[in-house]
């Protein structure tokens, strides 16, 4: 079988930033890398064209009585800027100790390759393994998967033949404790642009006669939270579901330590909605965050202008049963209602995604009609994790978003088994992203055992 | 005599951005251009080295009984960014109709060259003109003249031999009405930097547990004004002097029209401190403005980070008798008092400048000990303006700042006669800066007549 670490290096070297057209070559390289790897494993590979980046749809068929899983992953990565904060080149994989550094190492190239390697090993051991496997690997996850809904419509019938989705695009709390992710937050993103005068003005000649767009924007931003840390938008929390007691019990098993978490983040104090610990807040509460702000002169020294424009990039993380479109509307309405006189305001809509929950077998709220193969997969995963890591997994919702998981559920009815593989210190979406190679090694063995157990029934 | 317009083109072609070391060659070129022009007019030119950009000190001596004026100007310009908003190249002078476009055309290359050309013409007409003239032309005005105080200490004795300072670095309200500027606002500038977590964080994995630095900054910014448009900092207005009735009378002569001004700025509504028209506010009231803001992701699309840092660039325009250091302290103290818990805050100090007023002869508050030569200069300027422009000048304070004018007054006792030459539509400090060539032509003739009248007594 191929060497997973060498293959991961090769994968990282393709700079596959999906949001930036400058990285067209890197996207193509990463897509071809995955397609050819799956072809070499005997998969029948379709590279499905979309309006932007192709989706790889690769199948290993078999008897209709065999369990059928869809392994999801993505070959695109976040932008690497600010580049000056990287200690090693962002797209030149560098191994230091048991970590491999590079953009996409943890999100999602390392975890995806872990699952591909597990499949490769299982099929090497038993080329006749009674298991149908479909790989579904997209190139637009980091931009909100705009082509995915259309793809899903075309491929929904094929996907409905499967039993469940399996993916590693969620987090482990630490390298000794596996989490099977039971929920994901949704997303609602848009930008706010404020315009004052028709051009930048001299702050001496005109200062004192008009409202500065930076001030107008700051007033709006400052109004969107209450001092105690809740989102200050009427109706924002109306659809939020209560947390089930078993979820709090699982979270208690995490034994998470607030002091270490604060030190890890480098903050003096937490700032959570009242009644929630930081570990609860990130899993069970929605947010409204400011991802970026800009306006006027940002260079060294001074430039005494009153800028014409200022903008902010806003994102909400949503929990069941908040609806992204409804939340966007509520937040935009609140912003419009708070717009001061004398400036213009425009929204630029960005992407969105529904929140998602899946309930493992034998819980108080497990659906009565849960797929028996899904239940078997959860139990096989629990057993494999316990064998390889020395302790059972815990089921936790996580704060991140993989919007297509909810999309797949809605369009095909398939639920997802989410085997977390990246660690808090992996620096996802930030400079110096890395992936733990011990986690990768154990992850390959875990998924291999899960696949074999699932196939053997 | 030289052709003033051709000379101005040559001057603009030197990209003399003082704040940016990349423009070292442009600074050198502009400085040598001015020095060699003054040498060609028979001046004895010293290029006085400073820690940064040299000051040109050029003298035409003469009998001690002759009036002696110091003509001030600066050869540096503001940065030209954002370059993509320029319709013609920023450093390639382009004449369209009666305007010349280019960075520095109006601030201060055109007006400075107007006064040099007036001197050239007066000396060509009468090489024995009984007038002592000193040119004092610096290269750091757009960065707050950091080398000027040290220079003033060394040259204070030489400057005290003069009677007054003459300059054209202020504004005309329109091309038919000359203003002799009777006051300038001061400046106090600094940046605020907010830091949250030690690095950018994934807004899903960690969103909801910490205070976003953009939010902290927005809360601070939003707190610095009251809804009615006053600066919301305790003590900010304490030292502000009342306006003299003759100043309001002069302003009434301006016949300024709020509707046209709003259209010129492209705003829907003014936002002035209560009790002040926009024309009064800009002259008689201090401000606190945000010149820039930045933090997090500012590119296309989305990047779902919680940024580690955010910053704002703040500037106050001050009126007599506000003291820049005291105002900085008051504003910084207010900001510190309003810093929310959980983020760090740092200030980066920038430059400052005192406000300035000069009272023309025969006013209720004209100082009893006003220099007779200064009074003669004002009267000569009034007469020259009336002859060339067809109507007398009005005396107005202006909103802009030329901090060295107050500095010269404090160190040498010299007051300034400020003959405004740029127009509101000249786009100072903004893209597509230009200078009106009709104003330049009339300006040359006005200053020439003023010089001759002053010399003849």
Short description:
Two copies of one chain form a homodimer. The first copy, chain A, has 457 residues and is an alpha+beta fold.
Describe this structure as you would to a colleague.
The structure is a homodimer of 457-residue chains. Chain A has 457 residues and is of the alpha+beta class. Chain A has 2 domains: 4-185 and 355-456, Aminopeptidase (3-Layer(aba) Sandwich); 186-240 and 286-353, Alpha-Beta Plaits. Chain A has 12 helices and 18 strands. Chain A has helices at 4-12, 24-40, 105-125, 148-160, 213-223, 245-253, 258-265, 278-284, 324-338, 372-389, 403-412, 437-456, and strands spanning 44-48, 55-60, 68-74, 94-96, 99-101, 132-138, 164-167, 179-184, 186-195, 201-202, 287-296, 305-306, 309-318, 344-353, 356-357, 394-398, 416-419, 434-436. In chain A, the strands form 4 sheets. In chain A, strands 1, 2, 3, 6, 7, 8, 15, 16 and 17 form a 9-stranded mixed beta sheet that branches. In chain A, helix 1 packs antiparallel against helix 3 (105-125) and helix 4 crosses helix 11. The longest helix of chain A is centred in the N-terminal third of the chain and has 21 residues, at 105-125. The interface between A and B is large, with 98 and 97 residues. Strand 11 (287-296) of chain A pairs antiparallel with strand 11 (287-296) of chain B, so a sheet runs across the interface.
